[in-house]
Structure formats: C-alpha cells, structure tokens
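Q: What residues go here?
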C-alpha cells in the first residue's frame, strides 16, 4: 500500500489545512446555523458596538461596516446563481439589531445584484437607522460618457430604494487617465457636486487603487480647494500597512496623509482578500496562544479599526458565522497593545515569504466570458501556499500528502468546468483588476502546476 493510501484522516485534514475545514463548515451551516452555534457565537458579544464619529459632519457610524460585495447566493433550478434574498434579509436584520449602521455596495458587486438586494433588505428598516454607501463604477469605456454615468447614478438610487446617498465614491481610481476620462472630461464630477449641493449626496469621496504619486495628486486637489473630498476609501491591513506590494501603497502612508488633513477613512480589504482569515498552522498557533478564543480574522479587524480617523471597516460577510464573529470583535473593539502589534508585524514578515497571488477576491474580474471562476481559483491557490500544500518537487518530504490535498481541494473549491484549464488568455479580466494582476498568466501557471501534479512530473 502506498504512502498516499496510508495517510489517515487526521493527517490528511492537517495537510489540507484548517482553513479548508473552516470553509467547509461555513458552507455546510451558512444557510441555516443551528441554535446552539448561534448561542455560542452570540455569547462572545460582550458589549455594545463601537462607533466612530465623522468629525466633518457628526455622523455616528458603526466601526464594523457591512460590505455588500459577497452576499449569499443560491442555485436556481437550471443551476445558475441568484441572490439568496431571504438570507440577505436575515443578515442585514441581525447586523442592524447589533448596532451595524453602515452598508457599502456598488453597481458591479455580486454580478450586478448587490445594490438591488441591499436595497430590498434595508428598505424594511427606517431610513434614518442606517448609512448607505455606493459607487460610480463606470469602468467600461462605453459608459464613460456623461449620460450613461448619470444613468448609473440614478439607477443606484432606484435600486437602493433611497432618495439620497450618505456616502458616494468615485470607484477604484489610481491613475490620471482613469480619473480624467471617467470623471472630469465627461462632466460627471461637476454633476455630482451639484447633486451634493442639492442634498442627494451627503458625502462625496473616492476609493483608491494606484500609485503613491497619484494619491498625492488627489490630495493636492484637496489642498488647493479644487475638490474638497469628504472621505476616502483605502486598503488597510497588517500586511499592506508597511509591506504593500505590486500596485498597492503602504497603508501607513495613505492613512497618515488622510489623517494630516482630517479626511475620514473607510477601510477595504482588512483581511487581504481572506488571506488574513486563513493562516498556516504555525501562524495560527502563534495567535491562538495569545488569544485562544479569538478567531484569526479578529486580529486583522482589530488592526484595521485601530487608527482613530477610520470611521468604518468594511467586511464582506456571506454567512451568519462571519457576521457574529465580527460583531464579537467590534462589540466593543479592544485596541491592540504594543506587544500584540509586534506579533502581527512578525506574522506579516513571515507571510511575505510565501509566493501568493495578490488577489483580494474583489470579483471585479467577473463574470469571465468563458465561465472561469477566477477568484475561487486564486483564493484556493493562495490558501494552499499558506498551508504548505504547493510542493516545489516530488522529492519534498510531504509531496504525496500535499499532492493529494491540493488536487482534492482544488476540485472541491472550484467546479471542474470553471477551472484554470479553460482560460484562453483573452485578457478581458486584466483591465478590471485593481491589483494589476496579470490574471491569464497566473491561471496558465496554476493550470500547468495542476497538470504536473496529475501527471506526477513535478
């Protein structure tokens, strides 16, 4: 009998990784958490939600914000996806019941369904009980024009079932071409400023994915008084804080510059696309030794909520377990001390040694015209790297176990007809990626690795 067949269940699950178990558990009970589990998670909520006051207008905002980009889906009879509105309603109701009052959406989230689903759920609550944030997501060159951009704005109001927006963003800008062609040259920013003056937009800001040079340029417009931004959204987590890579900029710099100007910050990607919720056994043990009852994700959320000019940390919560765990973290938020901050810096340093793909699972690359589930492929690969299940050679000591764990986990995480092998490298996804990942190149690389494992030619 081969070593592969000899591996017992405990060893196999250890190789597959605790994160895979967590994903499986969430998937199994995400649509109907039993009362015992609900009671256990509720018991970890020890106080009231932490709020931050927007110093510019006095808004009292929940430090935990509901990011509506990963709302729960269910299958239609024909096998296609649709929003599970009943679950969305339950999640929103529970969030509001426990003090969450900030909800962030976009026309492009959840394959274009987010705003309408969020609007349905929120419309069942008094309008003055929540703040709604959404974005002008006019990425497609065919809708850069004034009329289509204006129509997108009005459609957001209609789908969200509101007559004003609390926080409205110019979505994912990071270079002069994008800013000028999507917002300036077509006159749409002048229109939005008039909408703000009329009270239909209470706060106007922007979300950032780009270079430090362009970030500084946007702030220079603020300093000169040409555009008085009310807030900005930045990517902030304990890895990107001082060790940002690729197109990202260190959040320590970004938030520091906002803070100098008293510009409130909204935080996106506190979990770095889920990677900070699923660490390898060694890193998880380090955190658990310090706080045995705390989730791995809670450390990242505590870090993201630390700066005093952050008014809300957005979390894309698909399942009730996600929501309850985050409620426990923010009700109330316990600030990190110097020793804990040093522990997270050490964790970040170790993570930098892993060759992961800088995907945050934002899903801007979706839908793929060829049906490939890009975010799931890259998320699984990153998890496998973090768990040590990507062997560099068949001579590795744990090669057989890691090979089996990777191949089985891949098929479980990504439907076979949506895997990397079907990528034709059309490149349509690349223009939408805020992290500037060469997605086809990564998919080809991952598919080649999968084939090597299958053919045992590594």
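A:
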């Amino acid at each position: 009998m081969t070593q592969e067949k000899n591996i017992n269940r405990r060893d196999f699950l250890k190789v597959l990784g605790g994160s895979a178990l967590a994903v499986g558990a969430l998937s199994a009970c995400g649509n109907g958490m039993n009362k015992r589990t609900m009671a256990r998670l509720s018991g970890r909520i020890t106080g009231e939600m932490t709020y931050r006051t927007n110093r510019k207008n006095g808004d009292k905002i929940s430090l935990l914000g509901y990011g509506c980009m990963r709302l729960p889906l269910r299958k239609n009879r024909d096998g296609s996806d649709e929003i599970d509105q009943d679950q969305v309603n339950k999640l929103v109701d529970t969030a509001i019941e426990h003090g969450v009052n900030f909800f962030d959406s976009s026309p492009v989230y959840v394959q274009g369904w987010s705003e309408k689903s969020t609007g349905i759920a929120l419309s069942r609550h008094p309008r003055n009980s929540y703040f709604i944030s959404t974005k002008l997501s006019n990425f497609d060159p065919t809708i850069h024009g004034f009329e289509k951009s204006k129509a997108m704005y009005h459609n957001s109001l209609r789908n969200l079932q509101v007559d004003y927006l609390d926080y409205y963003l110019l979505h994912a800008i990071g270079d002069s071409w994008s800013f000028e062609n999507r917002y300036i040259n077509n006159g749409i920013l002048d229109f939005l400023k008039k909408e703000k003056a009329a009270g239909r937009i209470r706060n106007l800001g922007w979300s950032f994915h780009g270079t430090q040079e362009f970030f500084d340029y946007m702030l220079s417009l603020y300093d000169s008084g040409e555009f008085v931004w009310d807030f900005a959204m930045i990517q902030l987590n304990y890895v990107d804080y001082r060790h940002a890579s690729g197109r990202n900029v260190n959040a320590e710099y970004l938030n520091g510059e906002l803070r100098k100007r008293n510009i409130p910050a909204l935080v996106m990607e506190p979990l770095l696309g889920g990677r900070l919720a699923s660490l390898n056994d060694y890193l998880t043990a380090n955190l658990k030794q310090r706080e045995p009852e705390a989730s791995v994700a809670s450390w990242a959320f505590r870090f993201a909520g630390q700066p005093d000019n952050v008014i809300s940390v957005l979390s894309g919560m698909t399942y009730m377990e996600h929501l309850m765990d985050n409620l426990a973290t923010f009700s109330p938020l316990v600030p990190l001390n110097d020793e804990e901050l040093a522990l997270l810096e050490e964790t970040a340093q170790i993570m930098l040694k892993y060759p992961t793909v800088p995907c945050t699972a934002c899903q801007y690359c979706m839908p793929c015209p060829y049906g490939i589930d890009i975010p799931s492929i890259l998320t699984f690969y990153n998890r496998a790297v973090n768990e040590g299940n990507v062997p560099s050679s068949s001579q590795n000591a744990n090669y057989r176990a890691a090979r089996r764990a990777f191949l089985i986990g891949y098929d479980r995480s990504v439907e076979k007809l949506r895997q990397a092998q079907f990528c034709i490298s059309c490149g349509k996804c690349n223009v939408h990626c805020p992290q500037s990942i060469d997605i086809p190149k990564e998919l080809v690389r991952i598919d080649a690795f999968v084939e090597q494992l299958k053919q045992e030619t590594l």
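A: Context that may help when evaluating the design: The CA atoms of residues 9 and 45 lie 34 Å apart. The chain has a mean pLDDT of 88.
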